[in-house]
Structure formats: C-alpha cells, structure tokens
Amino acid sequence: MGFFPSLPTLILFTLVLNSALLFCNGGKTSVYIRKEEKTVDMPLGSDVFRVPSGYNAPQQVHITQGDHVGKAVIVSWVTEDEPGSNTVLYWKKGSDEKKKAEGKVTSYKYYNYTSGYIHHCTIKHLEYNTKYYYVVGDGHSMRKFWFTTPPEVGPDVPYTFGLIGDLGQTFDSNSTLTHYEQNPQKGQTVLFVGDLSYADNYPFHNNVRWDTWARFVERSVAYQPWIWTAGNHELDFAPEIGETKPYKPFTHRYHTPYQASGSTSPLWYSIKRASAYIIVLSSYSAYGKYTPQYEWLEAELPKVNRSETPWLIVLNHSPWYNSYQYHFMEGESMRVMYEPWFVQYKVDVVFAGHVHAYERSERVSNIAYNVVNGICTPVKDASAPVYITIGDGGNIEGLAINMTQPQPAYSAYREASFGHAIFDIKNRTHAYYNWHRNHDGAAVEADSMWFYNRFWHPAEEPASHSH
Ligand SMILES: *[C@@H]1O[C@H](CO)[C@@H](O)[C@H](O)[C@H]1NC(C)=O
Ligand SMILES: *[C@@H]1O[C@H](CO)[C@@H](O)[C@H](O)[C@H]1NC(C)=O
Ligand SMILES: *[C@@H]1O[C@H](CO)[C@@H](O)[C@H](O)[C@H]1NC(C)=O
Ligand SMILES: *[C@@H]1O[C@H](CO)[C@@H](O)[C@H](O)[C@H]1NC(C)=O
Ligand SMILES: *[C@@H]1O[C@H](CO)[C@@H](O)[C@H](O)[C@H]1NC(C)=O
Ligand SMILES: [Fe+2]
C-alpha cells in the first residue's frame, strides 16, 4: 500500500517547497541600484591618453613579475619614431651604483595597423623588499619610474593584492583605476583577470586602442606589477580581415614569466609572491585531457608547498560559478575538467572576470556528478575555493544587470556595479578581502570577508558583510 497524496495536498506541498527554495536557499542580491548612465570610451584626446613629450619618448611603460619568486621584473615600453635603446638603467634607492639590463625590441602588423617598437627587458637578481628606480629611453626623452620588490617568499609574509578585471578605457574604467589608487589599503600588485583594452570592439580591431589603453594604465602599472590573465578580448582572432593568429597584439605587448614555471605558453603560468602561490589559467586555450595546459596544471598543483606559500590563488577569465544571465555556464566545461583538483589541493580562492558585475560564492564544489547519478547540485565544501567574479572594471560593453532567479544557493553575494577589490594577506591563516563599488568613496567596503586559509586554518569563515 503506497502513499498517494490528494491533489490539494500535493499543490500545498509543492508551494511550500518552492517558497522554501526561494527564501532559504539563496544568498544575497544587493539592493543597490546604480543610476542609469552610458558607459562610453574616453575620447582619443583625453588627458589619460596623452603621449609623453620628446622625440621617441618611451610610452606605455608597464611592469610585471619576471621570474618565479619575485626577484626579477619585466619592464616593457613602446617607442614610436625609431627603435631606440633597449636598455633599462636601474638602481637601488640610496645607492649610486647604476646597473644596466639589455632587452629586445619587437613589432607587429595587424590588418592595416603597424605597431610601434615594443621593448621588453627583464631585470634580474634584484633584492627582496627593496625600492628600485629605473629609467628607459635616450637623451632628452628619458623617463624615470620606480617599483618596490616583494618581500622574500615565506609563510607569514603580509602582502596586499589589488583585483581588477575587464577594465577597458571608459570614464568608468578611469573611475575604477582612480578608486584603486586612492584606496587607503594600498594594493602592492594587481591581479588582473583578463580583458584589457577592448580594442577589438572597434572597426578592424583598431589597435590604436591597445596603445591608448597602455598609456591610460601606465600611471599604475609602471610603478607596480600587474599580473596578466588573458581574456576573450585578447584573442583578436579575425579571419574576415586576415588575422588568424590568436592573441597576436596581446602576446607582443604583454610578456609573462611563463618559462620560470615550466609552462610552454605565456597564457598559463604561476608565480610565488610573498606568501601567495598564484596560478594563472587560460579559459580560451585548450584545457582538455592531454593538452599542454592540462598537463602543466596536473604537474603544477603538487608542487605548491603550503609551508612556504600558504595562500593558493587561481586567476582565470571565465567564471565557473556565475549566476548572471551573461556568460551563464560558459565556464562549465573547464570546471568539469579541473574542479576536483582545486578541491584536492585546497585552493583558497579563484578570481575570474568576463561577467561585467560582481559576485562572491559560498565555498562549494560540484564534483560528484558522473552523468548517470544525477548528483549535480553544488554542495558546501570546506575544501573548496571561494569563487569571485570581478569583471566589473567598467569597459565599453556596460554592466551585466540580468541575473538568474532565484539566486542559487552557491551565490553568496551579487551586485551589478563597477568596482575593484583588495585581497590583504595578514599571515598564514588570515586574509581580509573587500570589494569597493565605484559609486562610493575609495575607502567604503560594499562587500567584505575574512578568509581562513584552507591548509592552515580550514574552519568555517564568519558571516561576511555586504551592503
Ligand atoms: C585601415 O582601414 C580602415 C578601413 O578601410 C580605415 O578606415 C583606416 O583609416 C585604415 N587605417 C590605417 C592606419 O590605414
Ligand atoms: C581620469 O582620472 C584622473 C584621476 O582621477 C583624472 O585626473 C583625469 O582627469 C580623468 N580623465 C578622464 C578623461 O576622465
Ligand atoms: C616546503 O617548504 C618548507 C619551508 O620553506 C621547507 O622547509 C620544506 O622543505 C619544503 N618541502 C618540500 C617538500 O620541498
Ligand atoms: C534583460 O532582461 C530583460 C527582461 O527580462 C530583457 O528584456 C532584456 O532583453 C535582457 N537583457 C539582456 C542583455 O539579456
Ligand atoms: C593572523 O592574523 C589575524 C588577523 O590579523 C590575527 O587575528 C591572528 O592572531 C594572526 N595569527 C598569528 C599567529 O599571528
Ligand atoms: Fe571577457
């Protein structure tokens, strides 16, 4: 004898179940509504795009980490009139001993655009935790900048990372960068989660917008490293105009220290910086079994020594846990490939971009499903990373406003605003994370959370604060 509920009972039961799902399961969707405004690119004549004065003056100066541990820096710049010098002159603050490093020059053509002379020079054997000055260019057009090397790699070294994604070159992009610069927490290095210039939104991918973007961000990236992740806007794959080599502008302009981590491609690599081990992945390169990226990551994860670098951070462009309608489930196949490893190796946090909004997940995993067992709902998992989408730099494509409803249980907080975040490592167990929306003052936190390290302190984190 079975139990057959009457139709009214069944309807009532279904209603109760639905409202339970609706009210108990989901996280928080922000009530903050941004006022309507157009996201437009800054015009070519804008102050941020100004070309430095002087014949052949170096422009678009940018730096990134140049080795695996933070004792080298790649300095890159562009000259427009002639190749000029490849030399970087550098010295320790307070020292008279000036050193020279020799770089290389390259250039490329894209449809009917010809790039300037793009210089890359790696300065090696730097001392940790030291301020260096450096000079690029010749004669009257020399330009001087500075950077500070990170402290020696070690388990309890505090370090402050900024997070920016999908920046572009609109007035909103400028606002994001300004807020990052003015943030009193003072980020020391930017983890950039992909989609830099959005030049590909222009007719024929007008690469002049790669140049303007690099001049725009120089005011930050000439003084502190930005760690590059490639996004879909770096592909510049355009067979209709004969451009069939993916990533051509990006790889000519932005170098990464991929060889130092045994990678065979500049699009995926790892670095150690202070107490963090940072793995950069490429959403738009092959990642299936037997591919170079797969084999590299499989060999890479066991190398992470949490006694040396407690914090394991992954950067990626297309998010795996995203509850906006935009790019919904685009990251799914990569998640299926790699998520079991992220749980096994207890990744602390994964930062992604691509969706032009902000979202933070619960610690969840979804690795039990095997096509036939039906177990396909993400579950709370203390060994799983928190997934953060920070594709809200402010590019020309505008905000992602439409969200899937109801908010799924994996999504802890979501808001369609532009902004940036800070990941502030205190020691091997604690890191303080916060997100800042552009419409507030530079110091206002719209979302924040204490991270407990998954290796050293895998306890449940206290409730976060979002407003
Ligand atoms: C490239 O071609 C486009 C379309 O013909 C044209 O509008 C643009 O001015 C050209 N740019 C250069 C640098 O020749
Ligand atoms: C960009 O922001 C900087 C710093 O706030 C400001 O000086 C500059 O005028 C802004 N430029 C544009 C085009 O908005
Ligand atoms: C891990 O790092 C610690 C601290 O630097 C070191 O003592 C230990 O030998 C390393 N372990 C391995 C397996 O390399
Ligand atoms: C967002 O949702 C609204 C209402 O459902 C719909 O009209 C609009 O087309 C959606 N926009 C995008 C970009 O998906
Ligand atoms: C690590 O940092 C947190 C937050 O600042 C602090 O409460 C904790 O005492 C620190 N742990 C150690 C061992 O210093
Ligand atoms: Fe993207």
Automatic annotation (TrEMBL):
Cofactor requirements of the protein: Fe cation; Zn(2+)
Domain spans labelled Calcineurin-like phosphoesterase: 160-358
UniProt GO MF annotations: acid phosphatase activity; metal ion binding
Domain of life: Eukaryota
Species in which this protein is naturally found: Corchorus capsularis
Catalysed reaction equations from the record: a phosphate monoester + H2O = an alcohol + phosphate
Name of the molecule in the record: Purple acid phosphatase
Domain Purple acid phosphatase C-terminal: 384-442
CDD domains from the UniProt entry: MPP_PAPs (cd00839)
Keywords, in A-Z order: Glycoprotein, Hydrolase, Iron, Metal-binding, Signal, Zinc
Gene3D superfamilies: 3.60.21.10, Purple acid phosphatase-like, N-terminal
InterPro entries: Calcineurin-like_PHP, Metallo-depent_PP-like, MPP_PAP, PAPs-like, PAPs_C, PAPs_N, Purple_acid_Pase-like_N
Domain annotation Purple acid phosphatase N-terminal: ranges: 58-149
SUPFAM superfamilies (UniProt xref): Metallo-dependent phosphatases, Purple acid phosphatase, N-terminal domain
Family that this chain belongs to: Belongs to the metallophosphoesterase superfamily. Purple acid phosphatase family.
Signal peptide positions (record): 1-26
Keyword Plastid: no
Class of the enzyme per the UniProt entry, highest EC level: hydrolase
Pfam families xrefs: Metallophos (PF00149), Metallophos_C (PF14008), Pur_ac_phosph_N (PF16656)
Keyword Zinc: yes
EC number per UniProt: 3.1.3.2
